[in-house]
From TrEMBL:
Name of encoding gene: Mgf
Gene Ontology cellular-component annotations: extracellular region
Record InterPro entries: 4_helix_cytokine-like_core, GCSF/MGF, IL-6/GCSF/MGF, IL6/GCSF/MGF_CS
Glycoprotein keyword on record: yes
Naturally occurring in which organism (per UniProt): Calonectris borealis
Main location: secreted
Signal peptide extent: 1-25
Name of the molecule in the record: MGF factor
Keyword tRNA processing: no
Sorted UniProt keywords: Disulfide bond, Glycoprotein, Growth factor, Secreted, Signal
Amino acid sequence: AAVPAGVLALLLGALLWAPWRALHGAPLAELSGDQDFQLFLHKNLEFTRKIKGDVATLQRMVCDTFQLCKEEELLLVRQDLGIAQVPLEQCHSRTFQAEACFSQIRDGLRTYHGSLAAVLELLPAHAGLVETLQLDAANLSSNIQQQVEDLGLATVTYPTEHRGPLPAFSSRFHHQVGGFFILANFQRFLETAYRALRHLARL
């Protein structure tokens, strides 16, 4: 079965954005020359690209099935749904913190793993793709945790408010719009992770 884009992208995103400044105090130049680390980066760059593609496939399905295609037309409805973008501020260049970025990616993948349940309910005919995406997200989160441990980094556990239950959708339409924004947010999350991984692979 094809791997859902969302999950792969998320998982990859977590790996991609992991700050690589410190490896037991090693400078980035030394770390970037490590063959195992480079293999990890390139494999997950491809993995992230695959996940992004699967998420895009689900976005097209939501567009075709519910005629929900343009984000700007749904912003007013979004305000009522309580669906926020998973934070990744620790992964941006100005505030780059290796341990914190890795932790945010890991936690973000877990959040999207749960959020995809709402998409699964909307697209029962494509349950296989959504479930594969959930599995990929879980696996990528585990992979990131393992890489963090291999690098000797200490992870941070963030408050659980970002991983709370999905909002109770008041109508079928709100559920559809909620699914639309879960996928849109997941795609952005993955794109950030992809850029981070690509940047690290070029060092």
